[in-house]
Amino acid sequence: MLIGELAGRFGLAAHVLRHWEDEGLLAPERVNGRRTYGDHHAVRVAMILRGKAAGLRLDQLRAVLDAPGGASRRELLREHRDALDEHIRELAASRELIDHVLHCEAEDFTRCPAFIRLVASLEDGAAPHYC
Questions:
Q1: 86/91 Cα distance (integer angstroms)
Q2: How would you class 103 by CB atoms within 10 Å of its CB: exposed for 0-12, middle for 13-18, buried for 19 or more?
Q3: Is residue 71 classed as helix, strand or coil in its secondary structure?
Q4: CB of 104 within 8 A of CB of 112?
Q5: 12, 48, 52, 70: which could form a disulfide with 16 (CB 3.0–4.6 Å)?
Q6: What are the pLDDT digits (tens) for 54-67?
Q7: What gap in Å lies between CA 28 and CA 5, rounded to an integer?
Q8: What is the rounded distance in angstroms from the CA atom of residue 130 to the CA atom of residue 119?
Q9: How far apart are CA 72 and CA 61, in angstroms?
Q10: Helices (H), ranges, the chain
Q11: Mean pLDDT of the chain
Q12: Parallel, antiparallel, or unpaired: how do β-strands 34-36 and 29-31 relate?
């Protein structure tokens, strides 16, 4: 398939695939000077999109996709999953803080003792807690 066909399958602009090629993520065949792609390229595009959705940068994706074997890929993804888990914890703490503010009965939530304790617990790196 040509670049426009592959890009269209994923709702992408063709320049995105050319950028990924420049970044070393895709290596299309060349026929009469035109990029051509096979089903294995479509699988790789899907993997790139899922990786980006999981927060992987293009250089991280290249490292995972070009790793010498399954064990190396798993280790790289394990490291990223651990970073994702930490980010999820941080997001959950932020959400709890916002939830408190949205339900706080104090006229000014910044003066609410429970809010102040919650912020202090976040500064200490502790799990948020309410009274």
A1: 9
A2: exposed
A3: helix
A4: yes
A5: 12
A6: 889 999 999 999 99
A7: 13
A8: 10
A9: 13
A10: 3-9, 14-22, 39-53, 58-66, 70-103, 113-123
A11: 90
A12: antiparallel
